[in-house]
Here is the input.
Amino acid sequence: KAEQAAAALADLLWEHKPLPGRTAAMDAGSRPSHHAVTGAARSSAALPLVVVGHDERPGSPDLMVGVVRSLRRMSCRVVDIGLTTRPCFWFAVDHLKAAAGLFVTGAGSEPSWTGFDFVGPQPPAAPLSRGGDPSGFDLDRLEARMSGFTRRPTRQAGPYRMFQAFVPYEASLWKHFHALRPLVVCCGVGSRLVRRTLERVFATLPCRLVLVDVPVRARDVLAAADADVVRVSEAVRRTRAHLGVLIDDDGQRTGFLDERGRVVDAGAVTKLVGRLLLAERPGGSVVVEGASLALLAGDIERCGGRALDGGACFAEMARAMRNEAAVLGGGTSGRLWFAESFPTCDGILTLARVLDVLSRSDAAFSAVAEGL
Here is the structure.
């Protein structure tokens, strides 16, 4: 399945951007002269660039081997960023101006499950979903292509190289952690990559980071009864922290707790961050998850912003963020989207913005949230 998925992705990429000299006869399956195609392929710049990476699950590295082999066989340039997080993977696809990306992950499921996330060719980087993409490049077509025959576009194997994406990714985070008051933050995170990034960031801040060990597993970061939420809540009370946060294994979804260890409503977090960003960019747009639009639209409009429907999936949210030049995206799911060089959903950026909100007053988190 790994090799089929990678080959299907490459086939769609070649369909969107065929090599110079490719003819209708070639697409029909006849055997043409390869002189024009081979000549065009000698320049690696003519080959689609695909970024690949994998998460920390035990089975992910093995699947990566098949993914890389298949992409190279399909004459793609492969940039391997290795073990990474989903936010860093999205960053790398955009940073390298890649045609697409394939991430081996099982985030949101139990450790025994592993699958694939795809980022499509439309700039900037955007996750693929089922149907509805104006370009026609979506999961439905990719899945259909997996069950068919994929033709090698050239006889040339694609080149391969590795890239340390975490270096520029972490550099992009620093500017968001500034002018903070000395807060104590309890953070539960199962990903050791996210944990290391937070340790490096907090090493230069006036804030104190208290890390809470949680396992890699399926969880609900917004449920007070979830075992990992309980762990973070207990740590908040034990250390007398100003707030707690649980960052899910995807590195994106977050659940916050106040200084009493109580879960803060995800919609309230969206409102708080939305007010902050709208104060910086008055009149801006906020893209809201469709199911949360009625709940949050009034508050956004009272803050001088425009509330727009962001749909029900990652691809729709990313597309709406880009098309509307929105300052924020979110709702009640625990995922917030930010307008970096591309629309991204990142738990570390979410934490930075919440710390910014709390640093603008001496009030406790509970008082700030209840004052909405």
Confidence is low (pLDDT under 50) at residues 21-38. The CA atoms of residues 45 and 227 lie 50 Å apart.
